[in-house]
Protein backbone atom coordinates (compact mmCIF):
# COMPACT_ATOMS: atom_id res chain seq x y z
CA UNK A 1 0.00 0.00 0.00
CA UNK A 2 2.99 2.24 0.47
CA UNK A 3 4.21 4.32 -2.44
CA UNK A 4 7.78 3.39 -3.30
CA UNK A 5 10.04 6.41 -3.25
CA UNK A 6 7.75 8.30 -0.94
CA UNK A 7 9.34 9.09 2.38
CA UNK A 8 8.08 7.07 5.33
CA UNK A 9 7.57 8.62 8.71
CA UNK A 10 9.85 6.51 10.90
CA UNK A 11 7.74 7.41 13.91
CA UNK A 12 4.58 5.97 12.42
CA UNK A 13 6.07 2.50 12.19
CA UNK A 14 6.50 2.26 15.97
CA UNK A 15 4.01 4.94 17.01
CA UNK A 16 2.15 2.72 19.46
CA UNK A 17 5.31 1.86 21.36
CA UNK A 18 6.55 5.46 21.31
CA UNK A 19 3.26 6.65 22.74
CA UNK A 20 3.95 4.73 25.96
CA UNK A 21 7.66 5.51 26.16
CA UNK A 22 7.66 8.57 28.40
CA UNK A 23 4.99 7.17 30.71
CA UNK A 24 6.90 3.92 31.14
CA UNK A 25 10.15 5.79 31.77
CA UNK A 26 8.48 7.91 34.41
CA UNK A 27 7.27 4.74 36.12
CA UNK A 28 10.79 3.34 36.14
CA UNK A 29 11.87 6.58 37.82
CA UNK A 30 9.30 6.66 40.59
CA UNK A 31 10.78 7.40 44.00
CA UNK A 32 9.08 7.70 47.36
CA UNK A 33 11.28 10.72 48.02
CA UNK A 34 9.31 13.64 46.54
CA UNK A 35 12.21 15.90 45.65
CA UNK A 36 14.27 13.06 44.15
CA UNK A 37 11.19 12.04 42.21
CA UNK A 38 10.89 15.56 40.86
CA UNK A 39 14.52 16.01 39.79
CA UNK A 40 14.74 12.50 38.33
CA UNK A 41 11.66 13.03 36.15
CA UNK A 42 12.52 16.63 35.26
CA UNK A 43 13.99 16.01 31.79
CA UNK A 44 11.08 13.70 30.91
CA UNK A 45 8.67 16.67 31.07
CA UNK A 46 9.79 18.48 27.95
CA UNK A 47 9.49 16.27 24.88
CA UNK A 48 12.92 15.16 23.79
CA UNK A 49 13.53 13.85 20.29
CA UNK A 50 13.68 10.24 21.58
CA UNK A 51 15.99 9.32 18.76
CA UNK A 52 17.67 6.42 20.57
CA UNK A 53 14.50 4.55 21.56
CA UNK A 54 13.06 5.20 18.12
CA UNK A 55 16.10 3.58 16.52
CA UNK A 56 16.00 0.62 18.93
CA UNK A 57 12.33 -0.04 18.17
CA UNK A 58 12.80 0.27 14.42
CA UNK A 59 15.84 -2.02 14.60
CA UNK A 60 13.81 -4.56 16.59
CA UNK A 61 11.17 -4.70 13.87
CA UNK A 62 13.63 -4.61 10.97
CA UNK A 63 15.77 -7.46 12.35
CA UNK A 64 12.71 -9.56 13.18
CA UNK A 65 12.65 -10.63 9.54
CA UNK A 66 16.38 -11.46 9.41
CA UNK A 67 17.92 -14.92 9.93
CA UNK A 68 17.95 -16.18 13.53
CA UNK A 69 20.96 -17.50 15.41
CA UNK A 70 20.99 -21.32 15.57
CA UNK A 71 21.11 -21.39 19.36
CA UNK A 72 18.35 -18.88 19.89
CA UNK A 73 15.60 -19.87 22.26
CA UNK A 74 12.76 -17.41 22.32
CA UNK A 75 12.46 -16.41 25.97
CA UNK A 76 8.78 -15.84 25.41
CA UNK A 77 8.17 -19.44 24.46
CA UNK A 78 10.98 -21.43 26.09
CA UNK A 79 10.23 -23.61 29.09
CA UNK A 80 12.20 -24.11 32.24
CA UNK A 81 13.57 -20.98 33.89
CA UNK A 82 11.22 -18.08 33.37
CA UNK A 83 13.27 -15.56 31.44
CA UNK A 84 10.30 -13.60 30.21
CA UNK A 85 9.96 -9.98 31.09
CA UNK A 86 7.15 -9.30 33.44
CA UNK A 87 6.46 -5.59 33.34
CA UNK A 88 4.18 -5.93 36.33
CA UNK A 89 6.94 -7.52 38.36
CA UNK A 90 9.42 -4.85 37.30
CA UNK A 91 7.02 -2.12 38.25
CA UNK A 92 6.22 -3.71 41.62
CA UNK A 93 9.86 -3.84 42.66
CA UNK A 94 11.07 -0.67 41.08
CA UNK A 95 8.26 1.51 42.25
CA UNK A 96 6.40 -0.05 45.16
CA UNK A 97 4.28 3.04 45.62
CA UNK A 98 2.52 2.58 42.29
CA UNK A 99 -0.30 0.09 41.97
CA UNK A 100 1.45 -2.63 39.99
CA UNK A 101 -1.66 -4.52 39.01
CA UNK A 102 -3.38 -1.73 37.19
CA UNK A 103 -0.90 0.90 36.12
CA UNK A 104 1.16 -1.05 33.61
CA UNK A 105 -1.57 -3.36 32.40
CA UNK A 106 -3.78 -0.55 31.27
CA UNK A 107 -1.06 1.29 29.42
CA UNK A 108 0.70 -1.63 27.81
CA UNK A 109 -0.06 -1.31 24.12
CA UNK A 110 -2.01 -4.51 23.51
CA UNK A 111 -2.36 -3.57 19.92
CA UNK A 112 1.39 -2.84 19.69
CA UNK A 113 3.54 -4.50 17.04
CA UNK A 114 3.77 -8.24 17.83
CA UNK A 115 7.22 -8.36 16.22
CA UNK A 116 8.67 -6.18 19.00
CA UNK A 117 9.42 -8.20 22.14
CA UNK A 118 8.69 -6.75 25.59
CA UNK A 119 12.44 -6.98 26.27
CA UNK A 120 13.16 -4.83 23.21
CA UNK A 121 10.60 -2.28 24.32
CA UNK A 122 12.28 -2.17 27.70
CA UNK A 123 15.67 -1.77 26.01
CA UNK A 124 14.32 1.31 24.20
CA UNK A 125 13.39 2.80 27.58
CA UNK A 126 16.79 1.91 29.06
CA UNK A 127 18.64 3.70 26.24
CA UNK A 128 16.64 6.87 26.89
CA UNK A 129 17.34 6.59 30.64
CA UNK A 130 21.09 6.30 30.07
CA UNK A 131 20.98 9.18 27.60
CA UNK A 132 19.02 11.38 30.00
CA UNK A 133 21.43 10.53 32.84
CA UNK A 134 24.30 11.66 30.63
CA UNK A 135 22.49 14.94 29.91
CA UNK A 136 22.01 15.62 33.64
CA UNK A 137 25.73 15.11 34.20
CA UNK A 138 26.72 16.89 31.00
CA UNK A 139 24.81 20.06 31.87
CA UNK A 140 26.67 20.22 35.19
CA UNK A 141 30.05 19.76 33.49
CA UNK A 142 29.20 22.27 30.75
CA UNK A 143 27.60 24.79 33.16
CA UNK A 144 24.66 24.75 30.81
CA UNK A 145 21.63 26.88 31.65
CA UNK A 146 19.02 25.44 29.30
CA UNK A 147 17.94 22.10 27.90
CA UNK A 148 14.96 21.19 25.71
CA UNK A 149 13.77 24.77 25.82
CA UNK A 150 13.63 24.99 29.64
CA UNK A 151 16.07 25.83 32.43
CA UNK A 152 18.58 22.98 32.83
CA UNK A 153 18.28 20.71 35.89
CA UNK A 154 21.50 22.09 37.38
CA UNK A 155 20.11 25.61 37.15
CA UNK A 156 16.74 24.59 38.54
CA UNK A 157 17.87 22.28 41.36
CA UNK A 158 21.60 22.87 41.73
CA UNK A 159 24.60 20.74 40.78
CA UNK A 160 24.39 18.28 43.65
CA UNK A 161 20.82 17.26 42.97
CA UNK A 162 21.40 17.13 39.20
CA UNK A 163 24.38 14.78 39.61
CA UNK A 164 22.55 12.57 42.09
CA UNK A 165 19.49 12.42 39.85
CA UNK A 166 21.73 11.28 36.99
CA UNK A 167 23.14 8.54 39.23
CA UNK A 168 19.62 7.54 40.20
CA UNK A 169 18.65 7.19 36.54
CA UNK A 170 21.68 4.96 35.95
CA UNK A 171 20.70 2.86 38.97
CA UNK A 172 17.16 2.35 37.71
CA UNK A 173 18.44 1.70 34.19
CA UNK A 174 20.72 -0.99 35.64
CA UNK A 175 17.84 -2.69 37.47
CA UNK A 176 15.73 -2.74 34.32
CA UNK A 177 18.74 -3.99 32.35
CA UNK A 178 19.45 -6.85 34.78
CA UNK A 179 15.80 -7.88 34.51
CA UNK A 180 16.28 -8.56 30.81
CA UNK A 181 18.19 -11.67 31.94
CA UNK A 182 20.66 -11.44 29.08
CA UNK A 183 24.28 -11.19 30.22
CA UNK A 184 25.59 -10.06 26.83
CA UNK A 185 23.10 -7.21 26.70
CA UNK A 186 23.95 -6.20 30.27
CA UNK A 187 27.63 -6.14 29.27
CA UNK A 188 26.94 -4.02 26.20
CA UNK A 189 24.93 -1.35 27.98
CA UNK A 190 27.30 -1.28 30.97
CA UNK A 191 30.15 -0.68 28.54
CA UNK A 192 28.16 2.22 27.11
CA UNK A 193 28.05 3.89 30.54
CA UNK A 194 31.82 3.49 30.87
CA UNK A 195 32.28 4.78 27.30
CA UNK A 196 30.26 7.93 28.03
CA UNK A 197 32.67 8.76 30.83
CA UNK A 198 35.71 7.89 28.69
CA UNK A 199 34.44 10.17 25.92
CA UNK A 200 33.86 13.00 28.35
CA UNK A 201 37.37 12.52 29.76
CA UNK A 202 38.93 12.65 26.29
CA UNK A 203 37.06 15.91 25.78
CA UNK A 204 38.16 17.37 29.14
CA UNK A 205 41.77 16.39 28.47
CA UNK A 206 41.45 18.34 25.26
CA UNK A 207 40.52 21.52 27.12
CA UNK A 208 43.87 21.71 28.92
CA UNK A 209 45.89 24.70 27.81
CA UNK A 210 48.90 24.25 25.54
CA UNK A 211 50.84 27.47 24.97
CA UNK A 212 52.99 26.04 22.20
CA UNK A 213 50.35 26.63 19.55
CA UNK A 214 49.74 23.03 18.44
CA UNK A 215 49.82 22.05 14.77
CA UNK A 216 46.95 20.33 13.05
CA UNK A 217 47.68 16.70 12.21
CA UNK A 218 45.68 13.69 11.01
CA UNK A 219 45.71 12.46 14.61
CA UNK A 220 43.73 15.54 15.59
CA UNK A 221 40.72 14.37 13.61
CA UNK A 222 41.20 10.73 14.69
CA UNK A 223 41.15 11.76 18.36
CA UNK A 224 37.99 13.77 17.79
CA UNK A 225 36.28 10.85 16.03
CA UNK A 226 37.26 8.40 18.77
CA UNK A 227 35.90 10.80 21.39
CA UNK A 228 32.74 11.19 19.33
CA UNK A 229 32.29 7.43 19.12
CA UNK A 230 32.59 7.11 22.89
CA UNK A 231 30.36 10.00 23.86
CA UNK A 232 27.61 9.53 21.28
CA UNK A 233 27.89 6.59 18.90
CA UNK A 234 28.62 3.96 21.54
CA UNK A 235 25.12 4.18 23.01
CA UNK A 236 23.39 4.10 19.63
CA UNK A 237 25.54 1.32 18.17
CA UNK A 238 25.54 -0.95 21.21
CA UNK A 239 21.80 -0.54 21.76
CA UNK A 240 21.21 -1.49 18.11
CA UNK A 241 23.38 -4.54 18.70
CA UNK A 242 21.49 -5.38 21.88
CA UNK A 243 18.16 -5.02 20.09
CA UNK A 244 19.19 -7.56 17.44
CA UNK A 245 20.58 -9.90 20.14
CA UNK A 246 17.36 -9.82 22.14
CA UNK A 247 15.46 -10.73 19.00
CA UNK A 248 17.72 -13.73 18.47
CA UNK A 249 19.22 -12.49 15.20
CA UNK A 250 22.23 -14.29 13.74
CA UNK A 251 25.77 -12.91 14.07
CA UNK A 252 25.82 -11.18 10.68
CA UNK A 253 22.61 -9.33 11.48
CA UNK A 254 23.84 -8.35 14.94
CA UNK A 255 27.00 -6.92 13.34
CA UNK A 256 24.99 -5.07 10.68
CA UNK A 257 22.77 -3.53 13.37
CA UNK A 258 25.88 -2.42 15.26
CA UNK A 259 27.45 -0.92 12.14
CA UNK A 260 24.26 0.98 11.34
CA UNK A 261 24.22 2.45 14.86
CA UNK A 262 27.90 3.31 14.88
CA UNK A 263 27.78 5.20 11.60
CA UNK A 264 24.49 6.88 12.37
CA UNK A 265 25.81 7.94 15.80
CA UNK A 266 28.92 9.49 14.28
CA UNK A 267 26.81 11.32 11.67
CA UNK A 268 24.46 12.49 14.39
CA UNK A 269 27.20 14.05 16.55
CA UNK A 270 28.96 15.64 13.55
CA UNK A 271 25.67 17.36 12.68
CA UNK A 272 25.25 18.36 16.34
CA UNK A 273 28.70 19.97 16.29
CA UNK A 274 27.88 21.70 13.02
CA UNK A 275 24.57 23.10 14.30
CA UNK A 276 26.45 24.63 17.23
CA UNK A 277 27.96 26.97 14.60
CA UNK A 278 25.01 27.47 12.30
CA UNK A 279 21.95 27.72 14.54
CA UNK A 280 20.77 30.05 17.29
CA UNK A 281 20.08 29.06 20.88
CA UNK A 282 16.38 29.73 20.35
CA UNK A 283 16.33 27.30 17.45
CA UNK A 284 18.21 24.59 19.36
CA UNK A 285 16.48 24.90 22.74
CA UNK A 286 19.97 24.93 24.32
CA UNK A 287 22.83 27.43 24.14
CA UNK A 288 24.38 27.78 20.67
CA UNK A 289 28.05 28.51 20.05
CA UNK A 290 28.66 26.68 23.31
CA UNK A 291 31.59 24.55 22.17
CA UNK A 292 34.07 27.40 21.61
CA UNK A 293 32.98 28.95 24.91
CA UNK A 294 33.85 25.64 26.56
CA UNK A 295 37.26 25.65 24.85
CA UNK A 296 36.23 22.80 22.56
CA UNK A 297 37.51 22.38 19.04
CA UNK A 298 34.93 20.25 17.19
CA UNK A 299 34.86 19.13 13.55
CA UNK A 300 34.04 22.49 11.88
CA UNK A 301 36.96 24.11 13.68
CA UNK A 302 39.32 21.19 13.02
CA UNK A 303 38.66 21.39 9.27
CA UNK A 304 39.13 25.16 9.37
CA UNK A 305 42.38 24.74 11.34
CA UNK A 306 43.71 22.39 8.66
CA UNK A 307 43.35 25.26 6.15
CA UNK A 308 44.27 28.10 8.53
CA UNK A 309 47.27 27.22 10.72
CA UNK A 310 46.86 30.50 12.64
CA UNK A 311 43.95 28.87 14.47
CA UNK A 312 46.55 26.74 16.33
CA UNK A 313 47.37 29.54 18.76
CA UNK A 314 43.70 29.97 19.66
CA UNK A 315 43.21 26.21 20.02
CA UNK A 316 46.27 26.10 22.29
CA UNK A 317 44.90 28.70 24.66
CA UNK A 318 41.38 27.25 24.44
CA UNK A 319 39.86 30.43 23.01
CA UNK A 320 40.30 32.06 26.41
CA UNK A 321 41.73 35.42 25.38
CA UNK A 322 39.42 38.36 24.81
CA UNK A 323 37.95 38.11 21.29
CA UNK A 324 39.21 34.54 20.66
CA UNK A 325 35.78 32.94 20.50
CA UNK A 326 34.51 35.48 18.02
CA UNK A 327 37.70 35.34 15.91
CA UNK A 328 37.63 31.53 15.77
CA UNK A 329 33.96 31.59 14.87
CA UNK A 330 34.60 34.01 12.01
CA UNK A 331 37.49 31.94 10.67
CA UNK A 332 35.41 28.76 10.80
CA UNK A 333 32.56 30.42 8.94
CA UNK A 334 35.02 31.81 6.34
CA UNK A 335 36.54 28.38 5.80
CA UNK A 336 34.63 25.41 4.43
CA UNK A 337 34.79 23.71 7.85
CA UNK A 338 31.02 23.62 8.17
CA UNK A 339 30.63 22.20 4.67
CA UNK A 340 33.31 19.54 5.25
CA UNK A 341 31.64 18.53 8.51
CA UNK A 342 28.35 18.15 6.67
CA UNK A 343 30.06 16.08 3.97
CA UNK A 344 31.66 13.77 6.53
CA UNK A 345 28.31 13.36 8.31
CA UNK A 346 26.79 12.45 4.96
CA UNK A 347 29.47 9.78 4.40
CA UNK A 348 28.68 8.19 7.74
CA UNK A 349 24.97 8.41 7.10
CA UNK A 350 25.45 6.57 3.79
CA UNK A 351 27.59 3.93 5.52
CA UNK A 352 24.77 3.45 8.03
CA UNK A 353 22.31 2.87 5.20
CA UNK A 354 24.53 0.40 3.37
CA UNK A 355 25.12 -1.58 6.57
CA UNK A 356 21.46 -2.65 6.56
CA UNK A 357 20.81 -2.52 2.81
CA UNK A 358 20.60 -6.32 2.64
CA UNK A 359 17.88 -6.56 5.33
CA UNK A 360 14.56 -7.85 4.00
CA UNK A 361 12.29 -5.07 2.80
CA UNK A 362 10.01 -3.74 5.52
CA UNK A 363 8.45 -0.55 6.75
CA UNK A 364 10.83 -0.59 9.73
CA UNK A 365 13.85 -0.87 7.43
CA UNK A 366 12.55 2.12 5.43
CA UNK A 367 12.18 3.91 8.76
CA UNK A 368 15.84 3.26 9.62
CA UNK A 369 16.88 4.52 6.19
CA UNK A 370 14.77 7.62 6.74
CA UNK A 371 16.38 8.15 10.17
CA UNK A 372 19.81 8.14 8.53
CA UNK A 373 18.55 10.61 5.96
CA UNK A 374 16.88 12.86 8.53
CA UNK A 375 19.97 12.88 10.75
CA UNK A 376 21.90 14.91 8.23
CA UNK A 377 18.93 17.09 7.24
CA UNK A 378 17.87 18.08 10.75
CA UNK A 379 18.33 21.62 12.01
CA UNK A 380 17.67 21.09 15.71
C1 LIG B 1 26.22 15.80 25.34
O1 LIG B 1 27.26 16.39 24.66
C2 LIG B 1 26.78 14.78 26.29
C3 LIG B 1 27.00 13.50 26.02
C4 LIG B 1 26.63 12.92 24.72
C5 LIG B 1 27.62 12.56 27.03
C6 LIG B 1 28.22 13.21 28.25
C7 LIG B 1 28.81 12.22 29.17
C8 LIG B 1 29.06 12.45 30.45
C9 LIG B 1 28.77 13.76 31.08
C10 LIG B 1 29.69 11.37 31.26
C11 LIG B 1 28.89 10.97 32.45
C12 LIG B 1 27.63 10.30 32.04
C13 LIG B 1 27.14 9.12 32.55
C14 LIG B 1 25.81 8.64 32.12
C15 LIG B 1 27.88 8.29 33.52
P1 LIG B 1 27.35 17.96 24.40
O2 LIG B 1 27.70 18.69 25.64
O3 LIG B 1 28.26 18.10 23.25
O4 LIG B 1 25.88 18.25 23.92
P2 LIG B 1 24.83 19.35 24.35
O5 LIG B 1 25.05 20.47 23.39
O6 LIG B 1 23.49 18.69 24.13
O7 LIG B 1 25.06 19.74 25.76
MG1 LIG C 1 26.62 19.97 26.89
MG1 LIG D 1 29.27 18.27 26.96
From TrEMBL:
Can you list the GO cellular component terms from the UniProt entry?
transferase complex
Would the keyword Transmembrane helix be found if you checked this record's keyword annotation? no
- Stated family: Belongs to the FPP/GGPP synthase family.
Single GO MF annotation: metal ion binding
Q: Name one GO biological process term.
A: alcohol biosynthetic process
Keyword match Transferase: yes
Query: What is the covered span of the full protein?
Result: 81 to 460 of 460
Cofactors that this protein relies on: Mg(2+)
The record's keywords, sorted A to Z, are: Isoprene biosynthesis, Magnesium, Metal-binding, Transferase
In the record, which residues are listed under signal peptide?
none
- Write down the superkingdom of origin: Eukaryota
What is this protein identified as?
A: (2E,6E)-farnesyl diphosphate synthase
